[in-house]
Amino acid sequence: MTLSKAKISIGSWAYAIGPYAQNPVPLEEVLSKLSDLGFDGIELGGFKPHAHPDLYPTKNDRKRLVGMLEKYKLGVSAYVPDLWSFPFAGGDPKVAKAYEDMFDRSLEFCVDCGFEKLRVDTVSGTPFPADWDYQETWQRVVAMFQRCADKAKDVGRTIVWEFEPGFIFNKPSEVKRLHEEVGRSNFKILFDTSHAQMCAVVGAKQIEPRETLKGGVLEFVEMLKGRIGHVHLIDSDNTLHDNETSTHAPFGTGYIDFASVIPALVKNGFDGEWWCIDLCFWPNAWEITADSIKFLRELFAKLGMA
């Protein structure tokens, strides 16, 4: 196991959606603060008013965005397209086309800007709808992710799927099996530690029978050996936010042992340089950003990754 120097980013969506939706922090203000705090980069949310393709429609506009990132000496760990309005798994061909069109636009955006990774998810909420056919829905998701991965591979990009309790296919075995069935070398798992806790330890919002792992998050990491292509780090207090997604609790306020989880991720094949903090939906994310990077910097130093 090699513990290499860690680069730290944070998801920009924490300052644009949820509690910040009515008063989002402007992107340049976010970049300025992250630079001052010593972040290596940002994970760009493709949500307005930040990095939506509509806001940077031309190649020159996108050069301007890249120039702003360079001004603050920040890299981009990944890009998160605005796909949540298109729950394609339900089988509506118009919705599926809209999802794929938004993905295509986001992929082009990433190519123009030089971003390497794009996040996807299954979009449809849990628990799994009783009137849906499980296998048909599963195959729709597999096929969509295959198409997205193939398009991304053609332009040298990686797709990372973020499983979570609030979206369908949230059992540990489903996460592993879906990755297997998509079967594309540039399709990887995005391992969010709070989602991992809620899926593997709590079994939140799963269809019966619930599936949890005795070894918790560490066992989940081992299950996904060689499959993890990106990581979001944040704590979990074993609750859900608004009974939907995992509560992204500040570091040190939950149950996750990061001093064990981070080396386990590396041991089990995660070789990415970026580690992204995710304060999604946290009400005072802006105020605790400094504490969050301080926690990780100190931990990475102890682990020999500083």
What does this structure look like?
- The chain is α/β, with parallel strands linked by helices and about 300 residues long.
- Helix content is about 40%, strand content about 15%.
- The strands form three sheets. The protein has a six-stranded parallel beta sheet. The protein has a two-stranded parallel sheet with strand order 2-3. It has a two-stranded antiparallel sheet with strand order 8-9.
- It is globular, with a radius of gyration of 18 Å.
- The two termini are about 15 Å apart.
Task: Summarize, please.
This protein has 306 residues and is of the alpha/beta class.
Provide keyphrases for this structure.
globular; 9 helices; single chain; alpha/beta; 10 strands; 6-stranded parallel β-sheet; two-stranded parallel ribbon; 306 residues
* Element-level helix/strand string: EHEHEHEHEHEHHEEEHEH
How many distinct helices?
9
Q: Spans of 5+ residues with little confidence (pLDDT < 50)?
A: none
Extended strand count = 10
Strand content: 5-15%
Helix share, percent: 40-55%
Give average pLDDT, whole number.
96
